[in-house]
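Researcher: Please translate sequence to structure tokens.
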Amino acid sequence: MFYKILFFIAIIIVFLQHSAIIAQQKANPPARSFATAFEPPNQDKPLATSGGASRGQQCIVDLDNSEVPITPILPAINQRLTVVSNPTFFIHIPQTSARKVFFQIEDENEENSYQTIMPISGDGGILRVTLPQDAPPLEIGKNYQWALALICDHRLRPDSPIAQGSITRTEPEIELNQQLETMSQIEQASFYAESGIWYEAITTLAKLKEDQPNNPKFQSIWREVLSSIGLNSIAQAKFIN
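Model: Translation complete:
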């Protein structure tokens, strides 16, 4: 893990050198690095947990092209944090004959549940699911479990490929929003990462990657982030929605 931290420091330093002119125009401190990325605050040794990937073969078109057919894009740590009530979830799915997915999220008491069915094209890539405004908002301090399953043969089956993950909404410090207002998007992503706020860190990086597809810096950072959490096999995957 230590060598990955050092590598991330090098990546961000290179990027910030290219952004020196912009940084000099700002009065706020320079962008924080991804050195402590995805390490929850107030927790010395995060627990390594399963990524929640499924190897079910039902309705997967070409299993041989994917080591993990369907998987959540999450770090393997105990807490995966957000500071918003309606976050975005990222799931990699392979090419599939399924044309719909089922998504569900519920709290630790199996209450405040939200379920939806979404259409998909069947193309392989990274699917994004954002909780809509009419969904029950995530409550501060509560732990939630979520899952996304491919709907094969027009129905959910016990062997339907599924990705699962966890999320906890935390209350941001008062200074957080004030600092974020003066930061560039890459600085915001780095700040979220240093604070252990995975969901906003990856959402911000994804937006940069998509808004500037020809910017090699953002493409490189995205690939390195996914590789750092063991998902290098899908680091080049495209967004499919």
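Researcher: Any highlights?
Model: Helices lie at 2-18, 20-24, 174-181, 185-194, 198-211, 216-228.
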